Amino acid sequence: MRLHIIARGKIGRSPEAELVDRYARRIAWPFQLTELPETGGTLPVPPAPARHVLLDERGDQLSSEAFAALLGRWRDEGIRETRFLIGAADGHGAASREGADRLIGFGAMTWPHLLARAMLAEQLWRATSILASHPYHRSG
């Protein structure tokens, strides 16, 4: 299953970009990062079947293990791509939230969008490591 981060705005050359790159290189599953302009722009049509996950401060707060289990279940169900959408500064509209398969958040606080990308890339790496029984991640 392809893991695809789709984010509004350009990350450029920044410490956050270095973190995203560091974790993206570690992800063993197919991975893609797409940047869209702050407004406008169109999303490429995903291969079917796909899941859409919006990062939203009102979203479910999952443990790393629960996030890994969700991705593992979707993979095992034959989902070809999971898209993680990070909105612009004004977040996602109601229609986007309603059309998503899942809303997840990194807590009730609002995080800078560039940092959210790095945090998501790290959690994708962690989830795939958990699913591969990598000894790095241990519970308790």
How would you portray this structure in words?
- The protein has 140 residues and is an alpha/beta fold.
- It has a single domain (2-131), classed as Alpha/beta knot.
- Helices cover 36% and strands 24% of the residues.
- The protein has 4 helices and 5 strands; from the N terminus they run βαββαβαβα.
- β3 (50-60), α2 and β4 (81-86) form a beta-alpha-beta unit.
- α1 packs parallel to α4 and α2 packs across α4.
- The longest helix has 19 residues, at 113-131.
- The mean pLDDT is 90.
Q: Secondary-structure blueprint of this entry?
A:
Layout: E1 2-8, H1 15-26, E2 31-36, E3 50-60, H2 64-76, E4 81-86, H3 94-99, E5 102-104, H4 113-131
Parallel strand pairs: 1-2, 1-4, 3-4, 3-5
Helix pairs in contact: 1-4, 2-4
Overall geometry:
globular
The CATH class = Alpha Beta
User: Count the helices. How many?
Assistant: 4
Main beta-sheet annotation: 5 strands, parallel
- CATH fold node name: Alpha/beta knot
Poorly predicted runs of 5 or more residues = none
Counting copies of identical and different chains, the oligomeric state is: single chain
The proportion of strand residues reads: 15-25%
User: What Rg is obtained from the alpha carbons, in whole angstroms?
Assistant: 14 Å
Major sheet: arrangement of strands: 2-1-4-3-5
Helical proportion? 25-40%
- State mean pLDDT (0 to 100 scale): 90
